[in-house]
Write a structure and sequence with these properties.
This is Aldehyde dehydrogenase family protein. The chain is an alpha/beta fold. The protein has 15 helices and 23 strands. Strand 18, helix 12 and strand 19 form a beta-alpha-beta unit. Helix 1 runs parallel beside helix 7, helix 3 packs across helix 4 and helix 4 packs parallel to helix 5.
Length: 507
C-alpha cells in the first residue's frame, strides 16, 4: 500500500503562538516506513529556549493559572481530553508518519490512553489533598498546622521518539493538573504530534502554560535542564542521556523525574497456559517493533516446555505482517531510522557471534510500497545465556532472547541480574505462585499473565537504572507538587512558649 504524504511545516509553539526559530533554521522529519520527507520543523536555539521558559515563567508567576480551583481545573483537563478525541485522526496520522507506529495501535491504544489519562487525573484532582490539617499535638505545643501542596513552577519535559504523544501526556497531564506550566522538547525524529497536541491544549489554557521547542537534544535539552528559571525536569529516554541530565540538573538542584531504559524479564512457569502465554509474550516484545521501554525482551522458559514454547513462538511470529503503518492491516511497522536499523542488525550479529541460535528473522526486509523504509524482521534467539550482550543491553528493536532454566529460583535470579528494573512478567495458573514471584522481581511493574497493561491510575517507573520517580497514578500528581508546612501558634501568652526558654534561659 502506498500513501502519499504531504510535506508540512511546523514552527515552534511559544506563548500560545506559532513562531519560527530565532535563526529561521529548520530540520527535516522523515517517514521511517518510506524514507520520504514529511515535515520541515523549526530548529530552535538556546535563545528560543529562553523565550519559551520566560513565557512559561510569566504564565506561572503572573496569572491565576496556578491558583485555579480544582473543579475548574478538572474541567480544563476534561476539555483537553475532548480536544484530543476530536482530533484523534490527525494526531494518529502525524504520529504514524514520523514514529512508524501503526495506526492500528495508535488509534486503539495511544489515543484512548491519552484521553483516559487527562480524565483520570481530572477526577483525582477533585479529591487531591491540596491542604491537609494536622492534629493538634501535645508536642511541640498547641498549634494549628497545615500541609499545603503547591505546584512546582516551570516544568521542562524531554521526550523520546518511540511513543511521543503518550509519553508527552504522562508529563503534561499531571503538570497541568497541579497548576504548573510546561516547556516540552520532543525528540527530533518525532516532534509533529507533540506540536499539534500543544496547539490543541492551548485552545483551553492561557498562553504560556504549554510551549514546545524543537531541535537537537544536546542543545535544546541541555539548555532547558540548565535553565535557572526551570524548576523541574521530567525526562524519558535512554539511561545514558538520563545520567547526563541528572548531572546537569544537579547544578541548580532541580526536581527530576527520570524514565529510562529496560531489559524486562518475562518468566513462564511450568503450569503456564501456553495458548495465552505464547501470544502474550510476543505481544510483550514485538509491539511497535520492540521499541518500547517496557518490552519483555528476555523470556525465561523451563526445560520441560522449552521446545514446545520455541516452536509456538516461531510459528506465530512468522505470521506477523510487516507493512506501512498507515495500512490498518499492518501488524509490525518499521524501526525509527537507518541508524536504529543498523544498531539492531549489529546486535543480531553479536548474538550469532556469542553463540546464540537464531531461530527466526534476523534480517532487514524490503516491504512492498515501502522499499526505502527501515524494516527488521521480528527476531528470536534461543540458547541465549543471561550474560550475553543481547541479554544485557537494551537493543530497542524486535529481538527476543529465549533463556532456558531448570529451577524457578535460578530464573528469578537471572531475571534480576540486570542494571534495569522497569517491567517484568510471569505466566502461571497458580495465583499464589504468581504473587510470590512478583514479590521477588525487581521491577516497577509486574504483569501476571499479561503485558503492556499500563493504567492511568497506576504508577509507572523503574527500579535500579530504569529511573527515578513515577508517572501516572496519584504519585504523578505528587511528583508535580511541593509541600509547604504552615504553622500557626495557639499560645498567645509568652509564658506558655516554653521553647523560647531554650534561648532566653536567664531572662
Ligand atoms: P534518547 O535518550 O536518545 O533521547 C531522549 C530525548 O532526550 C530526546 O528528546 C533527545 O533529543 C533528548 N536528548 C538527547 N541528548 C540530550 C542531552 N544531552 N540533554 C538533554 N536532552 C537530550 O532516547 P531515545 O533514543 O529518543 O528513546 C529511546 C530510549 O528511551 C530507550 O532507552 C527507551 O528505553 C527509553 N524509554 C523509556 C521509557 C520509560 O518510561 N522508562 C519510555 C520510552 C522510552
Amino acid at each position: 500500500m502506498t500513501v502519499k504524504v504531504e510535506v508540512q511545516s511546523f514552527p515552534l509553539f511559544i506563548n500560545g503562538k506559532w513562531e519560527p526559530a530565532s535563526n529561521q533554521e529548520t530540520f527535516d522529519v522523515f517517514n521511517p516506513a518510506t524514507g520520504e520527507l514529511v515535515a520541515k520543523v523549526a530548529k530552535g536555539t538556546a535563545a528560543d529556549v529562553d523565550r519559551a521558559v520566560q513565557a512559561a515563567r510569566d504564565a506561572f508567576d503572573n496569572t491565576e493559572w496556578k491558583n485555579m480551583n480544582p473543579k475548574d481545573r478538572a474541567k480544563v483537563l476534561y476539555a483537553i481530553s475532548y480536544q484530543i478525541a476530536a482530533h484523534a485522526e490527525e494526531l494518529a496520522y502525524l504520529e504514524a508518519i514520523s514514529s512508524g507506529g501503526t495506526v492500528r495501535r495508535i488509534g486503539n491504544s495511544d489515543i484512548l490512553q491519552m484521553v483516559d489519562l487527562f480524565q483520570t487525573l481530572a477526577n483525582f484532582t477533585l479529591e487531591y489533598p491540596f491542604s491537609e490539617t494536622l492534629p493538634v499535638p501535645p508536642f511541640p505545643g498547641p498549634a494549628h498546622n497545615f500541609v499545603w501542596r503547591e505546584p512546582i513552577g516551570v516544568c521542562a519535559a524531554i521526550t523520546p521518539w518511540n511513543l511521543p504523544m503518550v509519553i508527552a501526556t504522562w508529563k503534561i497531564a499531571p503538570a497541568l493538573a497541579m497548576g504548573n506550566t510546561v516547556v516540552i522538547k520532543p525528540a527530533s525524529y518525532t516532534p509533529l504530534s507533540t506540536l499539534k497536541l500543544a496547539e490543541l491544549i492551548s485552545n483551553v489554557v492561557p498562553p504560556g502554560v504549554i510551549n514546545v521547542v524543537t531541535g537537537p537534544g544536546a542543545e535544546i535539552g541541555e539548555a532547558l535542564v540548565r535553565h535557572p528559571k526551570v524548576d523541574k525536569v521530567a525526562f524519558t529516554g535512554s539511561t545514558e542521556v538520563g545520567r547526563r541530565i541528572m548531572g546537569l540538573a544537579s547544578e541548580t538542584i532541580k526536581n527530576t523525574t527520570l524514565e529510562l531504559g529496560g531489559k524486562s524479564p518475562n518468566i513462564l512457569l511450568e503450569d503456564a497456559d501456553l495458548s495465552i502465554a505464547i501470544p502474550g509474550s510476543l505481544f510483550g516484545v514485538f509491539l511497535h517493533s520492540g521499541q518500547l521501554c517496557e518490552s519483555g525482551t528476555r523470556l525465561f522458559v523451563p526445560d520441560s516446555l522449552y521446545d514446545q514454547v520455541v516452536a509456538g513462538l516461531v510459528a506465530l511470529t512468522s505470521k506477523l505482517k510487516l507493512g506501512n503503518p498507515l495500512d490498518p492491516m499492518t501488524d509490525v511497522g518499521p524501526v525509527i531510522s537507518k541508524k536504529q536499523k543498523e544498531t539492531i542488525l549489529s546486535y543480531i550479529e553479536a548474538g550469532i557471534q556469542e553463540g546464540a541460535t537464531l531461530v527466526c528473522g534476523g534480517k532487514e526486509v524490503k516491504v512492498g510500497g515501502c522499499e526505502d523504509g527501515y524494516f527488521v524482521e521480528p527476531t528470536i534467539f534461543t540458547n541465549v545465556t543471561n550474560d550475553m550482550k543481547i541479554a544485557q543491553e537494551e537493543i530497542f528493536g524486535p529481538v527476543l532472547c529465549v533463556i532456558r532454566y531448570s529451577e524457578l529460583d535460578e530464573a528469578i535470579k537471572m531475571a534480576n541480574d540486570t542494571i534495569y528494573g522497569l517491567a517484568a512478567g510471569v505466566w502461571t495458573r497458580d495465583v499464589n505462585k504468581a504473587y510470590e514471584v512478583a514479590r521477588k522481581l525487581q521491577a516497577g511493574v509486574v504483569w501476571i499473565n499479561d503485558w503492556h497493561m499500563l493504567r492511568s491510575d497506576a504508577p509507572f517507573g523503574g527500579y535500579k537504572q530504569s529511573g527515578i520517580g513515577r508517572e501516572m497514578g496519584q504519585q504523578s500528581l505528587d511528583a508535580y507538587t511541593q509541600t509547604k508546612h504552615v504553622h500557626t501558634s495557639m499560645s498567645p501568652e509568652l509564658e506558655r512558649r516554653n521553647w523560647y526558654g531554650i534561648l532566653f534561659g536567664q531572662n
